[in-house]
Amino acid sequence: MRPKIVILVLLAGLAGITGIVLIKHQASPLVPVATKEIQAVAPPAAPVIKNDEPMAASPVIPTPVAVAVPPAVTNPAPVLPVVADLETNAAHEAEVQAQIDKLQDLQANDDPASLKAILTELGNSDQEVRAAAVEATIQFGDRSAIPVLKDLAATTTDSGEKKALLDAAEFLSLPTMTEVRAAEVPAAKPGQ
Amino acid sequence: MKLNQVVTGCALAAGLMAFAPQSQAGVVVDNGLYATVTVKLTVVYASSCTQLKKASVTNKQILSALYPSVKNLTLVAGVQNTGADGDVFVYDTSTKTIGDDLTALGELTINNNEFVTTSKVKNNGGSATSNGTVGITFYDTPSDNQVDSEDASANWFEVSGVYSAKASQSVNKADTQTSIKVSAQANELSGQCQITPNSTVGKSDFLPIFGSATASGSGKLNNL
After folding, report:
1. Is the pTM higher than 0.80?
2. How confident is the model over A66-122, as pLDDT tens digits?
3. In 10 A of CB A127, how many CB atoms?
4. Distance between CA B113 and CA B213 in Å, rounded?
5. What gap in Å lies between CA B171 and CA B15, rounded to an integer?
6. How near does any CA of chain B get to the CA of A172, in Å?
7. Is A177–B43 a contact, with Cβ atoms under 8 angstroms apart?
8. Which of A13, A68, A107, B122 could disulfide-link A139, Cβ–Cβ 3.0 to 4.6 Å?
């Protein structure tokens, strides 16, 4: 072979190899591109914070925590009944407390009207008021309430309330300390 | 039992300490809150025919021993901003006025020893509970000490037992008013008493006495 032909063949082969390499290089561009996109989404590396650096000086790092924004309320309706219930309960509690306060005032009196008002509350629809009425009846201290207490006990299905009513009736049937003293002091005088 | 201790714990938790004059519902006088106290005791004594008998003691017997001719009185305990929180006062329900401080006079005293307390703090207030022992003493003629008070008094009793109490308070949105609610009860009190001096009622000087006591109240106090 002539030297010119050999050189030509070698140049052609070199050109072919170079072409193949170039084609291969261009056929795989996705990998570096994808990597670049992921890096753009990921947060930057957190800066190193020295112990003597104030926290406020550190840059704000955007993190996925930002998603913790409260979700939009699409249906606020259930909140309203809850608020309404709370207001209703508060109003009911205030009403009950007012009735109890009234009973506590009445129990200090001695007039029939006050006793009647107390005994009326023995049939109140609220258990707390009924219990306060029983205590007010005891504190009022009029034995004419005993039959009322016993009658109510006979018709009450709640065992706790029944016992409270009967206990109140029994307590009222006892002589008071004042009565015992009044009865005993004159008796004691002749012996003195 | 000093209800004000429970409420004070509540108030401290909520950071509320100061109040201004004026009043609302419940036993609130001069912007001070009082809890109505009720005493229900049973005395056991031996009758002349050697039978055991019982007699009752309520607020009215205590008050009639101290104020024989005055009606419409009841007992209240200072809870908050009363000047003597924890003391027992006479309250006239007809004039809505606070009378004598019976604790200061040595006539009726309620003392508690707190064993367990809990408290919860909310945005606009809080609540607290208290449990422990309580002692209640009554002498119609108090003296310098217990023995002298017993000797001098025609009527006296000393009872003690376990109590439980709870309190809650909340501040309105404008921060101008505080609502307070307290309640306490001692259901199994027991102790000794004397109904009359040199009486034929009791074969011994000291008679057994047992029963219960409660205190409850609520009201709105204006904030400073």
Report:
1. no
2. 444 444 444 445 555 556 666 677 788 888 888 998 999 999 999 999 999 999 999
3. 12
4. 16
5. 11
6. 8
7. yes
8. A107
